[in-house]
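U., I forgot to send this yesterday:
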Amino acid sequence: MAVSLLSFAQAIKDSTQFSKRHLLIGNGFSIALRPDIFHYGSLFSRADFSGHPNLPKVFAALGTQDFEMAIRNLEAGATLAPIYAGALPGAVKAMLDDAEALKNILVETIAGNHPDFPGSVPDPKFWACRTFLRYFLGDGNDGQVFTLNYDLLLYWALMHDDSPFTIAPSPIATNDGFGNDEDEPDADYVVWQGETAAHSAKVHFLHGALHLFDAGNELQKYTWVRTNARLVDQARSAIGANKFPLFVSEGTSTQKKAKIRHNAYLYQGFKQFTANALQTKVCFFIHGHSLAENDEHILRRLGAGRFPKLYVSLFGDPDDAGNRIIIGRAQALARGRKPSNPLALAFYDAASAKIWG
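Result:
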């Protein structure tokens, strides 16, 4: 069934009937800037294991594509192996060597598919992105932005200065629930302030991000302003200190949901998303997401919500095969609604949003 395609401006105008706009971002947000490096699947699928043939077997044995889990299991196995008489000579060293190699592969895979620092992106592109974000985080809307991406583009755009050629630009809400470490206020990082402070957060990385590192006793956010460190150097330093980037990249919706439920920051973002979907006077925009089944744990919250209208971006011809799938999945979300809370759908041209100018 053919659908009527709005421009982004028309979708925004139509959405003024609601009290707030919320935004869910998918990988298309990043692809629009750099399709050469952001058109990817998981980090696992891009990692080069050719020099370490046992590593794919480790992931397979553990039933995961989670780098941190594989590294921690290799290190734990090396610690325990000498206890058991059957341990082969050299096995402990091989496991530790592979654990160290996997840390380097993780760093190289992250850095090889991401700009090194904000200066890699021209200022006008950030200014255009901030214009787009104002429709959701600017004065007069008080919405929230939820991203499924773990790259740094959204974070960099939020931290970027406004164009000096714009007269009195409206501010953008940037609260993401992180603040100074009370014990180390001058540290190179800030820390997640916990569930209470998270209620006032406006930006949520639902699947984590490459600047968020699990330090065991706290979640740290490394900031460009405080470190001026390239992404590769930041990641190598943190991983070397056994702080792993917090992101959910592995496999199925069920696997992703399991990791979310076992991490306080991720689960709080998930709960915030769910709570907003249950509001009756707001609307949601989905930009740059295929509504794929591996994110069903998130999309299901929209189908079970109470908000009355969903605006979904489509890139290119609405009648091509990929867009027909997106349209069908959006319609399935709407069909799943209770009659007392129907969900209206609108589709808009992703390119017309001109996120990066």
